[in-house]
UniProtKB/TrEMBL annotation:
CDD domains listed in its UniProt record: PBP2_Bug_TTT
Keyword field contains Disulfide bond: no
Keyword Transmembrane (UniProt): no
Name of the molecule in the record: Tripartite tricarboxylate transporter substrate binding protein
Family recorded in the similarity comment: Belongs to the UPF0065 (bug) family.
Length: 327
């Protein structure tokens, strides 16, 4: 290779580096869209709007949350995965669509590891193992023993086939070898309501909706997911504290995260991650999330991707025995 060729290559590389740096400095130059696969008012929508409000202050451009409810988030996922990686269309979603759905379903028209760029986790939420008050159980061990003494007699509720509490309850059922009947509803709020009415025996109910009912005695909590007890319910033990080895190590109930289409510029991803991390670490965001029984989360894009890579195989195992469609 001649000296002239080498100089031309160096010039191209230098120009590319300058262009990338300039792009990062200029970004964002117009409003950013965050797609949400649920109607306004749900958990993902709440997280998206809390972060969007602060993100537009940090980035100094409007952040538009666009709700596309229906079809198990596909109405948000498909436009995102098929979009050009222009860095201005993003998707706020959760473990349900990033690991659990892709793990258990064979009919999903997208592959998160191939078609998404992972920007940052932003929040986490736990769930309570709750029973109707008339059920004579007060711990996870007693629940399992009662279910084994009455096989197929207990029912459990979920927010729908393929929802997080459906799949996690199936995982719980398989790990503990108990038989319960699944009763799907349309939302977590409905599940909590049906428990208070006594039509459901058990549910893994997101804390956002179930904590108030536990506090006023309309349902009973026997455990909470996650690493520590809830400040609002200090007497409810974690799964880690139970005497049931099978349920230890199941981790956090649900995480929320921001993703984009595959091929996003790494410098833009870092800029967005830095902004989200800064927001997540503020007392203001912690307080706002606490009001909906959530907590902030953050981490690097590679860490986020590694989490997805490690979780999908686990859910593929669950998927071998779980019915996750209406057919």
């Amino acid at each position: 290779m001649g000296v002239g060729t080498i100089l031309r290559v160096l010039a191209i590389v230098g120009f590319s580096a300058i262009s990338i740096g300039a792009k990062a400095q200029e970004y964002p130059a117009r409003p950013i869209r965050i797609l949400v696969g649920f109607a306004a008012g749900g958990g993902v929508d709440t997280v998206a709007r809390l972060y969007a409000a602060k993100l537009q202050e940090v980035l100094n451009v409007p952040i538009v949350v666009e709700n596309k409810p229906g079809a198990s988030e596909l109405l948000a996922a498909l436009p995102l995965t098929r979009a050009a990686p222009d860095d201005y269309t993003l998707w706020m979603t959760s473990a349900s669509s990033l690991v659990r759905g892709p793990g258990v379903r064979t009919d999903l028209p997208y592959d998160p590891l191939k078609q998404l760029t992972f920007i940052s986790r932003v929040a986490e939420v736990e769930a309570l193992y709750v029973v109707k008050p008339s059920l004579p159980v007060h711990s996870v061990r007693e629940l399992i023993d009662y279910a084994k003494q009455h096989p197929g007699k207990l029912n459990y509720g979920s927010a729908g086939i393929g929802s997080s509490n459906h799949l996690l309850t199936e995982q719980f059922r398989l790990l503990t070898k108990i038989d319960m009947v699944h009763v799907p509803f349309k939302s977590d709020a409905e599940v909590a309501r049906e428990l208070t009415g006594g039509t459901l025996d058990f549910a893994m109910a997101i804390t956002t909706f179930s904590t108030p009912f536990v506090k006023d005695g309309r349902i009973r909590a026997v455990a909470v997911t996650g690493p520590q007890r809830l400040a609002e319910l200090p007497d409810v033990p974690t799964l880690e504290e139970s005497d049931v080895p099978e349920v230890r190590g199941l981790g956090t109930y649900l995480f929320y995260g921001l993703v984009g289409p595959a091929g996003m510029s790494p410098v833009i991803v870092k800029k967005l991650n830095d902004a989200l991390t800064k927001i997540a670490q503020t007392p203001e965001m912690a307080q706002k999330l606490r009001t909906v029984s959530m907590r902030p989360a953050f981490g690097s894009p590679p860490d986020f991707r590694r989490l997805i890579e490690s979780e999908i195989p686990r859910w593929k195992e669950v998927g071998k025995t779980v019915k996750n469609t209406n057919s």
